[in-house]
């Protein structure tokens, strides 16, 4: 009976309008703001390092509206931004694949974020960014390094992308929409 109800919910979900609060996180210089405005404006924008946050609304697929928070988060600003995690339905975590020396720091940040109570069960995608550059780390290698699968309660996916060209971003966002919808169905 339970599975029948959830099947019906999945069918109906195509028509559910979904609004979600999505965090866009990652180390500084990873490409968060470039990603946000590539998704919003479909073009490359010139960025300067974000102080505080940027927030935009995105409509990735029919019937889904995301409020995306691009938050400049690091060890010093961490205590000030913890309240941004409340009521989060999804996360995009951006990694500069060219900057291998900082992948350990990226992993640390990812695991700190996922350790927050408000992030329990929240689906996320990792954007293996800057794939347009030569000799960048491949998404599968990055996944092995970041070990996101330690968080068995959070659905996740990884995508190679370039925030400069936009390659890979739409697919990633559409997948996150589906993940958020699915979680909404299983929770309600
Ligand atoms: N080649 C290449 N450069 C990128 C890409 N995405 C971002 N950049 C560049 O990386 C630099 C940092 O990008 P931002 O979007 O400002 O990075 P951020 O994560 O918002 O940085 P903070 O605001 O400091 O946290 C800029 O010079 C971007 O043009 C990409 O996919 N490919
Ligand atoms: Mg920024």
TrEMBL record:
Q: Which residues form the signal peptide?
A: none
The protein's matches in PROSITE patterns, at most eight in alphabetical order, are given as: ARF
**Which parts of the chain are coiled coil?**
none
Note the superkingdom of the native organism. Eukaryota
Instruction: Write out the entry's keywords from A to Z.
Output: GTP-binding, Nucleotide-binding
Offer one Pfam family short name for this entry. Answer: Arf
Quote the Gene3D superfamilies the UniProt record gives. P-loop containing nucleotide triphosphate hydrolases (3.40.50.300)
Q: Please give the family membership noted in the entry.
A: Belongs to the small GTPase superfamily. Arf family.
Question: What protein does this entry describe?
Answer: Uncharacterized protein
| Taxonomic source organism | Staurois parvus
Give the taxonomic lineage as stored in the record. Answer: Eukaryota, Metazoa, Chordata, Craniata, Vertebrata
